[in-house]
Amino acid sequence: MAAAHEPQRVSAADFIRGFANWRLQSARKPVVVTHHGKDAHVLISLDDYRRLDGDGAGGVASTTNLLQNSLAGLVESIRDGVILIDRGWRIAALNPAASDMVGAAAADLIGGNLASALPGLDGSLLSHRLSRLIDHRERFSGDIPGLLRPRQWLRVDLVPVPTGGAIILRDVSHTMEECAIGNARNALIAAIEADGGVGHARITVRETVEAANDALTMMIGVDAAAIRRVRFSALLAIGQRQAFVEALESVFRSGAPVRLASETITRDGAVLPVMLSIAEIRGPYASDGAVVLVTRRSA
């Protein structure tokens, strides 16, 4: 193709009058047709056009192949397990993470039934959702227990693909355990509140009260707003304050709960013997303060 040379230029009017000549000229190098002095069209030979079209198609194919290879590499490297199945629920492919989850080599699983990789599939909610995926290309996302082993929870995402479906698996057992612990903790707090004889306060690392329950405020004889942002040691008898501060520092330093006998001062000035139990509230990176349980004790 003679595109390396400066193309010939001709006005649209001259091009129309001498089309036969310019058609022959385009076989040797491109002819640029101008309109009002500006380049508007290019006349090239059929062979040159086909070469351009072939290069364009090749470029698109190359880009598509590169994208497909990148996606395949991404699936291979992610920590989630990915299993591809055909419309007969046979395993077509799986990534290393899925192979590790199942505990079997990919070569031993490909071509086999999905139930061979997921023992808890039969009769589970996932079985119904897979039918919806294959028959109606219906997506699904949810937490399913016992697919691989008892008491294990997997986050399952179902995605339709041309060959059938993709099953994306992530182990969320730890998250579910944390939710169960949180539910038990909430139930414990509800039981403490129902008892009515246990006061508790949440304090910051600087010892200021952020929240207090009704049992504690009634014990002291004030409302919750009156002690909010007050240092907890200020609620104690003067002779007991230093012991509380040292106990709180010990909790933050060691992380171990502390229990000590103390005395609070009521609104009327009366001294009330109490037992204090202090436990740290540990955040992901640092201490978020502490919880103090307050119960009455005999003098």
How would you write the strand order of the largest sheet? Answer: 5-4-8-7-6
Overall pLDDT level: 86
Number of helical segments? 10
**Biggest sheet architecture:** 5 strands, antiparallel
Strand composition percent? 25-35%
The CATH topology label of the largest domain is: Beta-Lactamase
Radius of gyration: 38 Å
The geometry reads as: elongated
Q: Give the beta-strand count.
A: 13
How is the quaternary structure best described?
single chain
Give the end-to-end Cα distance, rounded to a whole number of Å: 106 Å
Supply the CATH superfamily name of the largest domain: PAS domain
Order of helices and strands: EHHEEHEEHHHEEEHEEHHHEEE
Class by SSE composition = alpha+beta
Number of domains: 3
Helix content: 40-55%
Topology:
Elements (H helix, E strand, L loop, with lengths): L7 E4 H6 L1 H8 L4 E5 L2 E6 L2 H32 L3 E6 L4 E4 L1 H7 L3 H4 L15 H12 L3 E6 L7 E9 L2 E8 L1 H23 L3 E5 L5 E4 L1 H7 L3 H4 L10 H17 L3 E8 L5 E12 L4 E10 L3
Parallel strand pairs: 1-2
Antiparallel strand pairs: 2-3, 4-5, 4-8, 6-7, 7-8, 9-10, 9-13, 11-12, 12-13
Fold and architecture overview:
By secondary structure, this protein is an alpha+beta fold. It has 3 domains: 8-74, YefM-like domain (YefM-like fold, 3-Layer(aba) Sandwich); 78-172, Beta-Lactamase, CATH 3.30.450; 196-296, PAS domain (Beta-Lactamase), CATH 3.30.450. Helix content is 40%, strand content 29%. It is built from 10 helices and 13 strands. It has a 5-stranded antiparallel sheet with strand order 5-4-8-7-6, with helices on both faces. A 5-stranded antiparallel sheet has the order 10-9-13-12-11. A 3-stranded mixed sheet has the order 1-2-3. Strand 4 (81-86) and strand 5 form a beta hairpin. The longest helix is centred in the N-terminal third of the chain and has 32 residues, at 46-77. It is elongated, with a radius of gyration of 38 Å. It starts with 7 loop residues before the first strand and ends with a strand.
